[in-house]
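Internal QA ticket QA-208
Title: Verify multi-chain structure generation after dependency bump
Assignee: T.L.

Test input:
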Amino acid sequence: MRKIILDVDTGSDDAVAIMLAALHADIDLLACTTVWGNLDIELTTANTLRVLDHVGHRGVPVYRGSAGPFAPIAHHPRPGTDRSRGKIHAEKLAIPDSARTHETTPAVEWLVDFLRNTTDRVTLVPVGPLSNIASALAADPTIINAVEEVVIMGGGHAIGNVTPSAEANIWHDPVAADVVFQAGFERLTIMPLDATHQAYVSLSQAEELESTGRPAAKAAASFIRDRIAGYTETQPMDTQATAPVHDALCIAYLVDPTVVELVHCHAAVEVVGSLTYGRTVFDLRGRGLDAPNAHVAMHADAAKFFGFLMDTLGT
Ligand code: BDR
Ligand code: CA
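Actual output:
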């Protein structure tokens, strides 16, 4: 069973990822660490607790993490350009409040301590800005030794969502992403928008989830409907009445790697460009001199992905 730590900025698609990780028999969800991003840290943390409780996983600890970027910059280029803000991620997910609270140890402290001391090989799955992971690496770069794979949702080659050039998770804290990409993890896997935008879920598929009657599937259906409404309003997809459920693709990949096609290449982050600030640069054609450091998903199988959602949440 794969032991994972899920680092989330919950978030409607993070919520689906959390439910998949909590419920799938092949995954042992050790903890969730929370990070700012889609919403402020108080909101992402409360949403994370809500989701875990909703699927009966009150035993999974939640550690509250960074409230802002690892590397704040005085003037963030193009501030306020995320026109989707508030449209795709409800501040309070429409499920009951949690009766518990987050752990008292801060997420970065817990991550460093846990990874220093564990005898297990762990998979890190960050699906928000990389602020917690970069801070943990800054505190102790040797924590990479406990990690068998890092699976990141972030970046884009042909697609940007927060600017024409950049994806939100990377754009929120590009220096943090740069630190993580260069940290020397044994295996770095990246799910950029190029893959997640091939794994759209439709309104009729949300209805299929709903019709199973299972609490997790019904919650996922409602989050996906909200996403479809938000995307249709702010950045309509090529196929009508659909939306990507980005973060969930990382969990599908952990269980069935054939859900995506990976390219082994060098991945870097633009941390200085004004128009391209926060862009990921994937050397897909081997034009640079740097050796490959990442496996980057450039294609996803939408039918397989939806089958995974139905099997995991709907039965
Ligand atoms: C990513 O940014 C967040 O809005 C989503 O939760 C996802 O992790 C997509 O760009
Ligand atoms: Ca996210």
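Spot checks passed. The pocket of beta-D-ribofuranose (ligand 1) is lined by residues 11, 13-14, 38, 127-128, 153, 161, 167-169, 246-247 (CB under 6 Å).
Status: verified.
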